[in-house]
Write a structure and sequence with these properties.
By secondary structure, the protein is of the alpha/beta class. Helix 15 packs antiparallel against helix 16 (about 540-550), helix 16 (about 540-550) runs antiparallel to helix 17 and helix 19 packs antiparallel against helix 20 (about 625-640).
Length: about 650
Amino acid sequence: MRWPQRVAAMLLTTVLLAGPPTLLVRLVGWPTTDTPRVALWQWVHDPLTEQNLTLMLVVLAWLLWAFIAYLVTATTATRLWAGVRWLRHLPLPTPWQATATGIAGAAALTITTPTTPSTVDEHAGTTVGTIDTHPHGDAEQVDAAEGVRVPGGWLPPQVAEQVSAAASLMWLRRRRAYRPARADQNGPDVGELAPLPATVTAVQAAIATHDKPAPTAATAVGILPEGFPPAGASVLGPGAPAAARGLLVTVLLARLRDHTAPEVVITRDAVAALLGPAAPRLRPGPGLRIADDADHATALLTAATAPIPTGEAVGGRPRSVLMLAAPPNGRLADLLTAGPVTVVVVASWPHAPVWHVDADGHSTTDADDGPAVGPRVCVLDPLATTDLLTVTGHAQPAHRTTPTQPRIPRQSGPQPAPTDPGPRLRIRVLGEPVLIFDGAPLPVRRSAALHAVVYLAVHASGVASQQLAEALWPGLPAHRLTARLYTTLSDLRTLLRTATGHTIIDRTGDRYRLNPDQVDVDLWRLRRAVTHAASTLTDHGAAWQAVVNAYTGDLATGYAWPWLDPHREAARRHVLDAYAALAATEPDPRRALAWLQGGIRVDPYNATLHQHAIAVLTSLGEHAAVAELSDRYTRCLAAAGLDSALDAASVPDPTT
């Protein structure tokens, strides 16, 4: 039954229950207060009087109402009791029932979303679907094709894709700036591997739902909303501050991919009005300048627009976007009427068009023939804004107290003995994930199951069920996670037990972990080699060589799960440290160069390894090789969207 019918039925029931008693009491009054004997004698003596007939009609009406009330009460009580009994006797599904339910659910999802691509595991010979990893249709996670809702705002699809691309660029910048340590050096602050802010990972999860490739400069998001006046507007309405924050993020994201995009000039009072307590985290940088006041903004804009003829813009776009918390006046107002500047005033400005924005981002503009409906624009609260500006490099990350530690820390969790008393399940997660038993790959047909295996391999000491479920299905409502996790793990444990004859995934209370006595994980072998290399007192070269040999590829190659990047980068840094240590202790420069080239193959974006290799080549007189390596590195950075001209300042001196 649809909700209008439910409302109509409820109204009719209310009228039937409350209407008759009200009318009877108001028109006739309550039943007679005479004794039953007197009333009965009067009726026998003269039954057809007007008073007796009226009395009979009133009694009949009350009886009819009582019957209706009884039916309503009995029906309601029956339904309530049936619901209570169903809850009390609700059975937990057996493994076979859970498996059947999961297969049926997967089939239903496959039928409703036929265009979702799949990932083929060439080694295992099976198709690993991506549908049940990020289910569609949840109100809390809007279809990325129609925009992405995150805690604190809403992003149009193009802006969400740019956020995902900026997050990837941020990890590339971290890889480029990382300085691999020598054997006797300590590592950096562990905050370098801190996960990205929650708003960023929420956007990444929504984008991953559709497995879209990251946008390039050629598909950069539009700078201004469609229909926004080129000269600027007064932004008003319940969503005006949120829309201004969204515009700030949009322009800076575009600037990150295209250096000809407009820059933003914003006054400090506008920063305070838009970001509130988060205002101190905003920092100037490429594409963003913060003016102390209106006069300072005038000076910045004068310098920016001087080389451009009056009224012209670059590629049809404004040269600058000025954001103000109060209407401009004086010299600033004169400059705005003559230069290619788009002004966004989050206040009433009588000399500019009005752009209305509601709390959900829907916009309208004032026109001569009435309000004109505009597009839905990006709206963000202060926290979501600073989260997103972190990946553009314009906001300080949230403060973390993270003490330094040795470059190669001892790993927590189970450390299986290197001896193998019998056949064990081999789990390879360095490279493309695959499970191998008795020399043959095991087909894992549910992508969520393979995802769970990789997550448990990374977290060797085990994880709580809620943590695992949230990693597998980010953005899914919490009340839907338990059943999905139970179905996935039940199916996976049955598959592994049938294939190997052993319990591969242990469960203790609310925690799951891989059984270290029954599995051999290549990531665990890498960690053991790293721990040994960090603690050995003799034969350092062999210890670091063991680390290099244990690293067979990036963690979970081919997958872009939001939780994965910090762990993938940690494993990569271990092997870069090994290559750097081997090169630093090698007296033969050509052999040292070979170690450096091995590290560059692992991470072609790392600046330190390139500088060390260039220094060695220069000492050998290989000037042509120096030019070739430098040119190849520059092209690599440009292809990734990293500006090599800006990177020059971040490249460390190889002699230090």
